[in-house]
Design goal:
alpha/beta, Rossmann fold, Helicase, Ruva Protein, domain 3, 3 domains, 5-stranded parallel sheet, about 50% helix
């Protein structure tokens, strides 16, 4: 089947004629006698092209085109009319119609038009599927964690995503700041434009300005041609400035100008370049404190910190360690074509008792190393590096009372091999209370 076509027309004979003409080309054809029936068909099935009469008993086809696009954005619409006017044609195109033709000419024009509309619709569907795949890969649903801290950060990210507000992500190295920046971008109305990430600490201070803003030919030795900067690459989209605290004072003032005026000067250029870019910045430093010692511009800090999202250190939400470890095990096992091993309780206890100075990034590296080195179907403490293996499983880095309680309940459950009645007895609480705690902390 070449494509799926819906014909909406209240004239039964004309509708039948069009249906025969189109179906003889190998297209699947569905008919509807009015707008209501047509919209219902669109809600039930995916169509590449809608051929629609302008004059319907229950709607104006030109206005209907807008509703069709709302229901099915990838569907292309060909409008038919007995008495075409320029005004109606213009409005139909504005409302999303692919083309607008007069009845009588349709027998000669309809098939070439349908083929062109099908090509555009198939392209739109491919782009839509690709966009959904990208959004799924980088969206908020891809962020792992059920702890209160992570869920609060996700809630803040979702709220700010739909705006153009500048965002400042705060947290230690390895807490997933770039993952959050990507999620904010792909949940915004800029998701079809570029997301450009730059680590301000990884690029030499002498060349960071050129990297960010570009340069003119001859601006400095080796500048043989005009070069775009990352802000231009991100035009219409989002630029993520990681480790913003490492930026030099001179460059901080240039960044402030971009945030205030949406324009900048390339290195060696006298004419400003205009851009429309959303800025998401991140730091592991206390920028507000650094403004007091003039290490960071106070005016830039307040421009960046319009909306702040703190990301917790991994030791502050140990309940997420197991789900993160499971994810990394699956990912790296598939990558090296191995069966995914299981984690013993001893293995998990060691992970949960470790301090994780490198946070999620360190956990990711440890799980990759474990998958590569171990051939055991069940991972034990012996599969871990010495620094984690020798960590006392009774230690708990978090001082949060709920984390301590959760950790202790899990430890007792491990001791009783999951026997909840025995665990409740040892904890000196009722079985009902234990079940409530298990549900609260999502323990097994």
């Amino acid at each position: 089947m070449k494509g799926n076509i819906l014909i909406i027309d209240d004239e039964e004979k004309l509708r039948g004629l069009l249906s025969r003409i189109v179906s003889l080309e190998g297209f699947k054809v569905t008919e509807a006698a009015n707008a209501k029936a047509g919209l219902k068909k669109l809600e039930q099935e995916e169509f590449n092209v809608v051929i629609c009469d302008v004059k319907l008993p229950d709607a104006n086809g030109v206005d209907l085109a807008k509703k069709i696009k709302e229901v099915s954005p990838a569907t292309e619409i060909i409008m038919l009319t007995a008495y075409g006017t320029i005004a109606d044609g213009v409005k139909a195109i504005k409302n999303g119609a692919f083309d607008y033709i007069t009845k009588g000419d349709d027998n000669d024009k309809i098939l070439p038009l349908v083929y062109r509309a099908i090509d555009k619709s198939l392209l739109q569907q491919r782009l839509y599927r690709l966009e959904k795949k990208v959004n799924k890969q980088y969206g908020f649903e891809n962020i792992i964690g059920t702890s209160k801290q992570i869920q609060e950060a996700i809630t803040l990210g979702k709220k700010v995503a739909g705006t153009d507000a500048t965002v400042l992500l705060l947290g230690e190295t390895g807490t997933g700041k770039e993952v959050f920046a990507q999620a904010i971008h792909y949940a915004s109305n800029r998701s079809d434009k570029n997301f450009v990430a730059v680590n301000c600490s990884a690029i030499g201070k002498d060349i960071l300005e050129s990297e960010l803003f570009g340069h003119k030919a001859g601006a400095f030795t080796g500048a043989n041609k005009d070069t775009k900067g990352l802000f231009e690459e991100a035009d219409g989209g989002t630029i993520f400035l990681d480790e913003i605290g490492e930026m030099s004072p001179e460059l901080q003032s240039k960044l402030l100008r971009v945030l205030e005026t949406n324009e900048f000067l390339k290195v060696g250029e006298s004419k400003p370049t205009q851009v429309n870019v959303r800025v998401i910045a991140a730091t592991n430093r206390d920028l507000q404190k650094e403004t007091e010692t003039q290490q960071f511009r106070i005016d830039l800090f307040y421009r960046l910190a319009v909306f702040q999202i703190p990301l917790p250190a991994l030791r502050e939400h140990p309940k997420d360690i197991e789900s993160l470890a499971e994810y990394f095990l699956s990912f790296f096992a598939a990558k090296v074509n191995k069966s995914k091993p299981k984690m013993s309780q001893e293995f998990l206890e060691k992970l949960k008792g470790y301090h994780w100075k490198g946070n999620i990034r360190e956990l990711k590296n440890i799980m990759e190393r474990t998958v590569i080195l171990s051939d055991n179907p069940m991972l034990t403490a012996n599969d871990l590096p010495l620094e984690i293996k020798t960590t006392s499983s009774s230690s708990l880095s978090s001082f949060n009372l709920a984390d301590v309680e959760e950790h202790h309940i899990q430890k007792v459950l491990n001791h009783t091999n999951g026997n909840k009645t025995e665990a409740a007895r040892l904890l000196n609480i009722g079985l009902t209370t234990l079940y409530r705690k298990l549900e609260e902390y999502k323990l097994r």
